[in-house]
Amino acid sequence: MDNVELLSRIQFAFTIAFHYIYPPLSIGLGVCLVVMEGLYLKTKDKVYEELTRFWVRIFALIFGIGVATGIVMEFEFGTNWATYSRYVGDIFGSALAAEGIFAFALESAFLGILLFGWNKVSPHVHFMATVLVALGSIFSALWIVVANSWQQTPSGYRIEGEGMTARAIVTDFWAMVFNPSSIERYSHVLIGALLAGSFLVLSVSAWYILKKQYVVHAQAAFRIALWVAAVSSLGQLFTGHKSAEVVTKYQPAKLAAMEGHFEKSAPADMYLMGWVDAKEQKTTGLKIPGGLSLLVHQDVKAPIPGLNSIKPEDRPTAVNFVFQTYHLMVAIGMMLIALSLFGLFMLYRKRLFETRWLMIVFVFSVLLPQIANQVGWYTAEVGRQPWVVYGLLRTSDALSQAVKAEHVLASLILFTFIYVMLFALFVYLLNKKILHGPDVVDSEEEEASSRMNPVLN
Amino acid sequence: METVLGIDLPTWWFLLIGALISGYGILDGFDLGAGAIQLFFRKEESRRIALNAIGPVWDGNEVWLVIGAGSLFAAFPLVYGTILSVFYLPFILFLVAIIFRAISIEFRSKEKMKWWRQLWDISFCVSSIVISLLLGLILGNLIQGIPLNAKHEFIGRLRDFFNPYALLVAITVLSLFMMHGAMYLIMKTEDRIFARLTVMANNTSKFFILCFMATSMATLIYVPHMTDIFKSHPELFILPIAAVLIVLNIRRSIEKRQYRRGFVSSSITTALLLILFAMGLYPNLVLSNADPQGNISIYEAASSTGSLKTMLLIAFIGMPLVATYTVFMFWTFRGKVKLEEHSY
């Protein structure tokens, strides 16, 4: 791997991983906002209105950073991966342009009304803006995941030209959009986003409940988010299984890496945790013998092609990394199911908000879906290597010819510096907004707490 | 070659991307310009009013950049990869400035401390200036052509981009945006800041006209290929004449205190200057100053016919929607800015 390739890969991975902290939160929080404001319009209960206003302020912070770091991604395809851009422009470019036209424009235009339109438009128009912003972010994810899924499971194309002038051309637009992994991966990503957003609401609300501040608001928000979280975490089980089936069928090398399976043709085990020694081709850990075979073929003895059945130059090299990220994602997914279902059970028993330790767990739970979303993408993208477009274009062939290593190093240092600062500012301002809490108008019970936190600005 | 309404598909996309970039120049142009003059306001209240005048719309304006870039990627992938990778460091700086600008707007009023707000005001102003200058610098180099060999590979050096002509174009773009931004702010403000802005509109427009004349001269002398089109199509000479008249009309509107008209004129100026550039380019998208074989034409760079057709359909459905949102957004926030609890 030469320096330009290594640095460009690090830069892309770093900038997209950082970017991906924010869009899932926007999507998930957007859906929670729709529920909160919808309940306000339906019940006219001030609590829901104040909640909506509070969470809109946090939404604005998250959305702003998401947009700024997202534009970087669009440009990086051209700056660092010019050959890739030329190769896939016909396909990837269309999806990206469609995202801009159909999704991003919708989101950004109505964001203005969502943030600043409270006194300019009627409550119903404002609610419409909230719905459209949420829809915009959901559409946005659709086009981006479609584009990425095409890289994983290309279809509806043909290759024109050879060598340095080769490129993929759309032959069937809908086959390209609904390529074999689009739906499975999109639903998996979308639910991951709902989990990120709902656990943010759960975490902040649990903190208020522990501190005995804004208790009415916090409990109302907690209930909404808990339902979103419970339904989503169960749904994730289903979409996760579907995604794994697609990987099995279309990306055998990735599947083999996910479970550290090397033998050419043997039944494959399923690990709960473990360690892969890629050099010795050995995977050790806690496993269900034949578990993967059972899951895929409903038969513990069914053979599954391992990494050795794939040409060495076509195998992912970071096998242990793919294995660990995949297993961490699955483990967190299970924890989220347990946590949200247990929360619902306690809500039913009317002991949820009084159970202190559970509230403390919920405060920290915000990190779980974030980590799962990150490592899930690491599995998907590192597991796809050495290909940038699976089976068609190698990552090492996708670079910009005009760019030198020292330029990429300079930009990488610049982005690192800025993103570290940006993250520190984000945490600081988020914390400040949480400390400030919702602006409560006339509730006797909560007057005390709002007096302790005078309205700033 | 397949045509729609008598125009071939690559030309359609050349026109559409031109329209998107013009839309971006006009819309983001005024909020970049407003950012560039932010530090001229001394009072905290004036700065907040100026910031909130663009507050609800700047993000929507930036969408045009995202769509424009996405369309270039989709329709002319070869050009997208070439331009972005050749101007690697300028574009990286552009992105960095975009980030700083977004967070400055978002963060500045979140704290009351004087140093905090001053810091973000400076960051907002500097990033707006840097973005405008970089756009101009890249434009200036594209007008002259960049060193590409017959295989469209870049054979030049980074420092060659900082030539006098490109720097002149960069300053011209900045002056255009500053004037444009000043007139936008005039329409959105009243009282003291309004009075201050009228002086600024006057000064920036004088500065712009100076830059405009210098750039026109320099183009005629040093970049004659931009004017080749008028030899074959003398009737098109009406466009540069129109540009001059409209630029003069900006001055006239400012002197007569008709700022709305002035703002419309500076919007048209932005579009006309880009149209003149596009006419000098067509049918190429990138000119090479090293080897005529290095020019990248729209036909060579275009995506497949099928893709261009699908995308054209998407654009015909989608762009009216985008235009509707844009109009709805500006209509909702029409009139003079009043600071309220949700303001930045």
From TrEMBL, chain A:
<dbReference type="Pfam" id="PF01654">
    <property type="entry name" value="Cyt_bd_oxida_I"/>
</dbReference>
<feature type="transmembrane region" description="Helical">
    <location>
        <begin position="95"/>
        <end position="118"/>
    </location>
</feature>
<feature type="transmembrane region" description="Helical">
    <location>
        <begin position="54"/>
        <end position="75"/>
    </location>
</feature>
<feature type="transmembrane region" description="Helical">
    <location>
        <begin position="408"/>
        <end position="430"/>
    </location>
</feature>
<keyword id="KW-0812">Transmembrane</keyword>
<comment type="similarity">
    <text>Belongs to the cytochrome ubiquinol oxidase subunit 1 family.</text>
</comment>
<keyword id="KW-0408">Iron</keyword>
<feature type="transmembrane region" description="Helical">
    <location>
        <begin position="220"/>
        <end position="238"/>
    </location>
</feature>
<keyword id="KW-1133">Transmembrane helix</keyword>
<keyword id="KW-0479">Metal-binding</keyword>
<dbReference type="GO" id="GO:0070069">
    <property type="term" value="C:cytochrome complex"/>
</dbReference>
<keyword id="KW-0472">Membrane</keyword>
<dbReference type="GO" id="GO:0009055">
    <property type="term" value="F:electron transfer activity"/>
</dbReference>
<keyword id="KW-1003">Cell membrane</keyword>
<dbReference type="GO" id="GO:0005886">
    <property type="term" value="C:plasma membrane"/>
</dbReference>
<feature type="transmembrane region" description="Helical">
    <location>
        <begin position="20"/>
        <end position="42"/>
    </location>
</feature>
<dbReference type="GO" id="GO:0016682">
    <property type="term" value="F:oxidoreductase activity, acting on diphenols and related substances as donors, oxygen as acceptor"/>
</dbReference>
<protein>
    <submittedName>
        <fullName>Cytochrome ubiquinol oxidase subunit I</fullName>
    </submittedName>
</protein>
<dbReference type="GO" id="GO:0020037">
    <property type="term" value="F:heme binding"/>
</dbReference>
<feature type="transmembrane region" description="Helical">
    <location>
        <begin position="186"/>
        <end position="208"/>
    </location>
</feature>
<keyword id="KW-0349">Heme</keyword>
<feature type="transmembrane region" description="Helical">
    <location>
        <begin position="355"/>
        <end position="372"/>
    </location>
</feature>
From TrEMBL, chain B:
<keyword id="KW-0349">Heme</keyword>
<keyword id="KW-0812">Transmembrane</keyword>
<dbReference type="Pfam" id="PF02322">
    <property type="entry name" value="Cyt_bd_oxida_II"/>
</dbReference>
<feature type="transmembrane region" description="Helical">
    <location>
        <begin position="262"/>
        <end position="282"/>
    </location>
</feature>
<feature type="transmembrane region" description="Helical">
    <location>
        <begin position="164"/>
        <end position="186"/>
    </location>
</feature>
<dbReference type="InterPro" id="IPR003317">
    <property type="entry name" value="Cyt-d_oxidase_su2"/>
</dbReference>
<feature type="transmembrane region" description="Helical">
    <location>
        <begin position="311"/>
        <end position="333"/>
    </location>
</feature>
<feature type="transmembrane region" description="Helical">
    <location>
        <begin position="119"/>
        <end position="144"/>
    </location>
</feature>
<dbReference type="GO" id="GO:0070069">
    <property type="term" value="C:cytochrome complex"/>
</dbReference>
<keyword id="KW-0472">Membrane</keyword>
<feature type="transmembrane region" description="Helical">
    <location>
        <begin position="207"/>
        <end position="226"/>
    </location>
</feature>
<keyword id="KW-0479">Metal-binding</keyword>
<feature type="transmembrane region" description="Helical">
    <location>
        <begin position="232"/>
        <end position="250"/>
    </location>
</feature>
<keyword id="KW-0249">Electron transport</keyword>
<keyword id="KW-1003">Cell membrane</keyword>
<protein>
    <submittedName>
        <fullName>Cytochrome d ubiquinol oxidase subunit II</fullName>
    </submittedName>
</protein>
<keyword id="KW-0408">Iron</keyword>
<dbReference type="GO" id="GO:0016682">
    <property type="term" value="F:oxidoreductase activity, acting on diphenols and related substances as donors, oxygen as acceptor"/>
</dbReference>
<dbReference type="GO" id="GO:0009055">
    <property type="term" value="F:electron transfer activity"/>
</dbReference>
<keyword id="KW-0813">Transport</keyword>
<comment type="similarity">
    <text>Belongs to the cytochrome ubiquinol oxidase subunit 2 family.</text>
</comment>
<dbReference type="GO" id="GO:0005886">
    <property type="term" value="C:plasma membrane"/>
</dbReference>
